[in-house]
Amino acid sequence: MKAWIPAAVCFAVLLYSCRMVYLFKRSYFPPGSSYKVEVTVTGPDGKVIPAVERAPH
């Protein structure tokens, strides 16, 4: 009977921690935001290889 108090406290701390991580991640990377990263690739002859656009899903 005495073990349920520490177990409940641990569970509450775990839920609180998970919630804070979720909220931080959501505020840092808002839903619907997208980022475009451009990478320049050069071939063996020194010429830049153009990037190919991905087809939308």
Task: Give structural notes.
- There is one protein chain.
- This protein has one helix spanning 4-28; strands at residues 41-42, 48-49.
- It has 57 residues and is mostly helical.
- It has a two-stranded antiparallel ribbon with strand order 1-2.
- The chain starts with a helix and ends in an 8-residue tail after the last strand.
H-E order: HEE
Helix content: 40-55%
* Strand percentage: 5-15%
Strand order of the largest sheet: 1-2
Determine the number of helices (DSSP H or I, runs of at least 4 residues).
Answer: 1
Alpha carbon gyration radius = 24 Å
Shape: rod-shaped
The total beta strand count reads 2
State the assembly state of the protein chains. Answer: single chain
Main beta sheet strand tally, sense and closure: 2 strands, antiparallel
State the distance separating the first and last CA atoms. Answer: 54 Å
The pLDDT mean sits at: 83
Key features of this structure:
two-stranded antiparallel ribbon, 57 residues, mainly alpha, 44% helix, 2 strands
